[in-house]
Structure formats: C-alpha cells, structure tokens
Amino acid sequence: MFERLGRALAFPLAAMPALVAAWFCLRIAEAVHASGAGVAQSSLFGAGLGNDLLSLGRFAFVFLVGALPLAFIPSQRWRTAALGLLWSVLLLAHAALLQYHWVSGVPLGADLFAYSASEVGATVAGGWTLSPMLGVAVMAALASLWALLSMSVRDWWFRPGARAGYAALAVSLCAFALLPQRFAPAVARTDADVDYLLNKTAFFVDSNLARLHGAGAAAPRTEAQTPWSGQDPRYPFVHVDRTPDTLGPLMNTRPGAPPPKLVFIIVEGLGRSFSGPNARLGSFTPFLDELAGRSLYFENFVAGQGRTFGVLTTVFGSLPFGENGLAALGDKLPRHASLLSILKSQDYRLRFYSGSNLEFDNEGIFLRRQGVDSLVSEKDFGPPYARSNDWGYADRDLMEVASEREARAPAGPAVTIVQTTSMHSPFTFPGKEAWLRRVDERMAGLKLPDSPVYRNGRDIFASILYTDDALRLFFERAAKLPDYGNTIFIITGDHRLPELPMDTRIERYHVPLIVYSPMLKAPLSVKAISSQFDIAPSLLAYLANNHGLKTPKEVTWIGTGLDTEPSFRNLHVIPLKQTKTEMSDFVSGTAYLAQGRLYTVGDGMQLDPNTDAGALARAQAQFRDFLEANGTAGRSTALLPQGDARLAGYGGERTLRGTALAANAGDLGVGKLRRIAGTSEVAFEATFTNHGVDTSPAFVPLLVVANEHGLELNETAAPVRTLAPGETVTIVLRPDVRKVAPGSYFVSVLPSHPDTGRPLGVGQYHVETRL
Fold this sequence. Notes:
By secondary structure, the chain is an alpha+beta fold. The chain has 19 helices and 25 strands. The strands form 6 sheets. Strands 2, 3, 4, 5, 6, 7, 8, 9 and 10 form a 9-stranded mixed sheet that branches. Strands 13-14-15-16-17 form a 5-stranded antiparallel sheet. Helix 1 runs antiparallel to helix 2 (41-58). The N and C termini lie far apart (70 Å). Mean pLDDT is 87; it is low at 215-224.
C-alpha cells in the first residue's frame, strides 16, 4: 500500500516538465506585455521566472495529492490525458488572471469575492477583451503541455519512484510553510515591476488563503494616539469636531449671503500623473489645467481608495471602510452623519447624476440613506442618447443631461454630484477616432517622446481628453445659471486609473483636487498633503463659520480638514484601501507604510525608502489601531451612540493637527529643484527653506543621481550649513556625470545628516532629467 501510494504521488511528478514548459510560454507573453509598460526585462525576466518556479514548488503538493484519484485509471495513456485536461484548465485560469491584470492594472486576489455576481458580470462585460498576444501564448502553452505529456508515456521518459514521490511531497509542504510567497530583487522599483514578478495564480490563491485565515481576527489593541481613538471602544471614531475653517479666508463671502450651492464632480480614474502641472506623463486635461489656474489647486492630494467602491463614503462622509468598503454592507450600513445628511437637515436639496448603474458598489443605497432627492442613472437616459459600452452612457451625454436638469432645478441651496465613467475600460465613447487623433496632437504640443506607454495607451489618453472636454461643456453651461456666482465646484478623481503604468504604489491614490468658485479671492496652488477624508469636514466648517449653518458637536470624521498651506507638509494621518479586500497602506505625516515597508513622502508624492525603526513602529501602531477601529465600525449598527449627529453652532478649539505623527520631516525642506539651462556642465539649482521658528539643525545639501531602477550612480554634496528661522537659500549642485552614459535618469535633492546621511527634512525625489 505504501509503495502504491508513493508511485501515485510520483505520477504527476514525472509529468511536471510539461507544466513548467507551458507556464514558461505564458511568462514570455507576460514579459512582452510588461516590457511595453516600461518593465525592464533585462533585469527582471529571470526573477519573474524564478517566482513561477517558487510558486510551483510551494504548491506542488496540491498537484501531487490532487492527482491521486487518477491512480484508479488503469491505462497510463488515459491517466495522462486526464491529467492534461486538469492542467489545461489550470493554464486557462492562469491566462484569465493575466488578462485581468492587463486590463485592470492590478493582480486579482481575494477582491473577487467582495463583489456580488452581478457586479462581477458587469466588470467583466465592461472591460474584457482577449489580448491576441495572450491568445497565441495560450495556444503555445497548451501545445507544449500536450506535446510533452505525449512524450511522458514513452518508455524512455524518466520514471521517479515511490520515494521520490514522498520526498517531493515533503519538500513542497516545507516550502509552503517556510518559504516566502514571492521575492523581488532590489531593481524592482515600481509597482508595475513588482506586479509583473508575481505568479498571478499563486497570488490569487495566497490572497484568498490569507483572507480566510484572517476572517474575524481582531488587530491587536494599541495605545497609539489617532483621530479615531474614541473614549468608548464601541464607537471608536466619535470625537469632538475641531475642524478649522481653512476655506473661509480664501473666499469673498458677503455678510448675510445665502449658503452657496456645492457642485461635486467625481471623475473616474483621474490621476495627477496625467493631469495638472508637472504631470509625470504629461497633462492630457487642458481644460482642467486652465480651470486649476483659476482655482484652489491641491497638488499633493490623495484618494482614500484604489477603486471606486469607497469614493462616496470617503468624500461625503469621511467614513471608515469596514471590511469591504462600508457601502458593501448595504441595508446593514451603520447609522452615521455625512455632509449630505447634515445639509439635507438644513434645507439643502441633494441631486446625483451618473450615466452608469446606480446599484454598482451599493452607491444607490448609500445615497438614499443620505436623503438625496433626485437620482439620475443609466435607466433615466433615452433618445437621442445611446449606451457607449456595458458601463452605461458616455460622459458628454452625462454632462448634457446634468446641465439640462440643473437648469430646470428649483432655486435654493443644493448639493449636486456628477460621477463620470468614460475613463474606464474598455474606453469607448462616441467619436473616438477623432479623439485618438487629438492624442497625437497633444503629444506633439507637449513634446512628449514616443514610448510604449503612449503607443499602447492611446485609447486611454483619448478617453482622458474626451472627458476633459465634456467637463468644459458642463462648466460653460453652468456659468449661465443664475446661481453660478454663489457656487463652489469641487473636482477630484475617485482614484488614479490603473491601466497606465505607475511609478510608485502611492500613485494609485494620487489624484488632483480643484476647488473653483467665482467667490474665490485669488487662485492658489497648495503643496500641503490633504485627502478626500478632509473634504466634508472642511466644507461644513466653512458653511458653519460663514453662513450660520450648524455642525455636529461630535463627529466620526477620519479627516481633520483641508490644509491650504502653499509649501509642502503633511499634518494628517490617512488610511488607504487599495481594493475592497486589501488594506495595507497608511500615511502618517511624512511616513508612508506600504505592505509593511516604510517610505518618506516628499513633494509630488515622491517616495524614498525610510529605515527609521522608530517611525516604522509608530506607523504600524497607528495602522493597527485604525484596523481595530475599522473592524468595530464594520460590525456596528451605528457609528454614533445616539445614531444621529447633534448639531450646534460653530465654535470651540479648532486645529488641523489631530494627532502625533509617525514621522515629521520637520520644517526644513527643498521647495524647488530645477536644472540650470544654457551651461556646458550639468548643474542643478535647489532652494532650501527653514519654515520653523528655530534655527535648523546642521545639514548637508545632498544631490543623488540614480537610474530607472533606483541604482545610485553619483552623489554630490555642498558644505554643511544651518538656516535661520524663515531663511531661504538657493544652492547650486554640480554632479560629476562624465562617466554616466547618455539617457534618462532621476535626480533627488535632500537636506541630509552630516554624519549618517539620513534625511533631516523634506526633499525633492526622483525628478526625471536627461543626461
């Protein structure tokens, strides 16, 4: 019996080379696709293949044990054919996971099971188009699999014995228990690099196993001070409202003027890397750029979520996420107060417009709970409008419908919300060919170099230009409405679309915020970090302080208010949820915790690895504290003891500073960095400023040149110095790049410790330059 069982285990072991060869074909296709997104195959292909082999070793016991029932098939040929069918299904599933990653920009994990069957169907129908290259790779993989399996029944094929079967089973079980799920070499710098390295099937399985293992487990309780450390453990988010009115000083508010109309535009997929000044990929939003020049513009602004599921609860409620996004609880959504419900109770009318399905992500349930008076979605569109894809109606149609209905809306204070969808796969909309031509024109106008990002993403960039023009139409019509002069417009993205390659993980959350109003005293560009959690608290503080509206005495806001400081800083603690099931990102001051690794956040949301063990411990403690409170909120029937907010007049102590931060780079920072043009030598000019009230510590102005993989090529330092309070100095740094081959590189400048080299303040990181 022992011998027969060992031989049964050894049977799939003998056929394993066929599976390895098939998987290799799919890895080649993945490498070709990733290279088009800028993933360097010269340094990462081997690591990707190594992760495939690591995954195969960790899960080999599944293949061995799973094939045991085949031992009852007496014919070796039929037994091998049955094994081939099982492995063919596995390869097709792996190809489907690859296709999902290519379409969505993120690997599929436990997030799949956080959506209903109808939502999964809508997602697949809305974005699924089989890649021809992947189709060829699948055929090559299946051909390789069956060719080698047919050889494996020949007499000359190697036949491992029973002992080999038992040994393979033992080794695989040890590998599963002891080895890491994956590895990434130091040259894997971007999220695109790391995601490419993953074996997508292993990631899917590991993610779901972790979800099952962690179900119901509470995070360890800590004493970390956070904005959600309430006195009552049953209601951890309850605290006294201390949100200051940071918008009031920037507005021309007439005494006795009626409360303003608020218009929110939530743009699907709008990210800072392709919109606004100094956009990494060049800005493809000319109208929003022009509007930003007349607005309060937040350059370093973050969404609370990496997908759409949380945008309404984040923007309008400053709410926690629960397990899968708070709205996912549907009818069990805990009672809470939001900007919408509070304004509704004070005679505001609420209107919502979307060209898509209102029930996706339970948005309709959330909006009805807030008391929204008018809900317009795909079912309300008729001729002459036609659906542009499975998601619904295109953004220009949406803007026309919203504009027409707003023109007929009754007078009086109102909140209008418009949520777009065209910047979502499959990126189809009327007149697409003309917009594809405009992509080429825009690239030429921006003098962008030809690269795979633009060649492979023309549909995406066309959709960005199309939506931007639809927004132009909306604003042109809004300017003709009688209440235009008393309106505040708030424009942001729900998250950064994932289909374009991302330089860092935090780029997924980096979106613009534009606050425009004819009442604005003057345009202002803000570098201080804020998040979508801060929008509702700040608007309510403005309305209470300037228009006499009432605000809750106790709130459950995660945000502490919009910071309008022009220079770079972060006074906030911000939890970030990547997908419905993954929450492993957290910002506290200048510390960014991402999947257990710590970074320093700089201007432009640039990241630099942070080795400060104390900052890591503080960030982890605060994050654990949030996870515990977040879990409690998801299981509660109400976020406030009384269920509803008790309103009171504006007053009391008000401050943006809600907690001690995990890391604060201090008041010393690099405000500007530019290359000096017109000289024969390579030189950079950096502006250092001490924003503090005390003399700065001694620091070394340090410039670092690195390649695309983060490998340091040159360091240049200026003499040690200090800065008096409020002092600004411009320093010229001349790196020696004579031995550096011509090409594109990245420059970072920071104030560093004279002895340890560690950052002493906020630097400018990873500024691309040609050498």
